[in-house]
Amino acid sequence: RSPGGPEVLLDEAAVLAAAEEAGEGFAAVGVEGASPFGESKTDGEPSSALQNVQQLFFRRHGLRSLTIPGSVVFRDLISLRVLSLSHNELVDIGPIADLPALQELNVNNNKIRDLSPASQCETLEVLLAAGNRIVSLDGFALPNLRRLSLFSNLLADFDALLAVLADLPQLESLDIGGNACCEDPSQRCGLIRQVTTLTELDGDPVQPMDRQLAEEFFRCA
Predict the structure, then answer these.
(1) Exposed e or buried b for every residue in 113-138, given b needs 16+ CB within 10 A?
(2) pTM for the full model?
């Protein structure tokens, strides 16, 4: 938002406009021939268009809150699979917990401290949260997560981080550089050794030789 300007609002109209701009069109969201703001509805009910939006990109708008009065009700976005809110000013992403079909979430470059709402989205496969203020992953559990980016956050407890990551059964790609907990090369070895599903770490492929070296490092330590 501009200095002194109105608060940026992610309301139903903004959601549908963003979906249309992303190329979904009315047919793609299941309301072919409908008004861009959905079919007629009674007060308090979501439009059929809103219920069928599958992708939403709302980036670089200065968005600070998902809960101010008038904001879209996230539990009405029952078909949303891809959500990008990167490069905003969000601190709290609580409403994201109400997205039952979410598969990809991008909240890079905000001011987020707590990712636990995303952990409620059991269908989530990709979570990008680089450049935030995350200090802990306590309670974090996502059975289908394949890609996780936590680059440049405030994670400092390596043992706590490792315990969470090792319990993500599908995790293949991890970006964790730029955190105090992973500054030492031994910590990279620890990740490779304990997170056995990893195929990529900080943009580099994890090769069989990397696993062998990690095992040897701890054998000699």
Answers:
(1) ebbebbbbbeebbbbbbbbbebebbe
(2) 0.88
